[in-house]
Amino acid sequence: MKRGFTILLLFAVSIITQILFADKVSFPGSEVLGSPTANSITVSVLPQNDLVIYYTYGNATGAMENRTDIVSIEKLSPVKIKLENLEPDTRYYYQVNYKRLEARSFSKGEKHTFHTQRANNNAFSFAVISDARYNDPNTNLDAYAVTLKNINKDQPDFIIDLGDAFMNTINNNGVLSSAESYEQVAINYREHHLYYGRMAHSTPLFFVNGKHEGEFGPRLKHFGESVPVWAAAARRRYYATPEINKGFYTGSVQKINRWGQRDANYAWKWGCSLHIVLDPYSFIANSRFENRKTRGFKRDDGNNFGNWQTTLGDKQYAWLKKTLKQSNAKYKFIYIHQINNMHGGAEAAAYYEWGGLNADRTDGFEENRPDWNKPLHDLFVEYGVNIVFHGHDKFFAKQYLEGIIYQLVPKPNCDVSCARVSKNVDAKKFGYSSGDFLFTGGHLRVNVSPAKVNIELIISNLGDSNGRAVYKYSLNQPSDFTPKKTLK
Question: Which one of 289, 392, 424, 441 counts the least CB within 10 Å of its CB?
Answer without folding.
Answer: 424
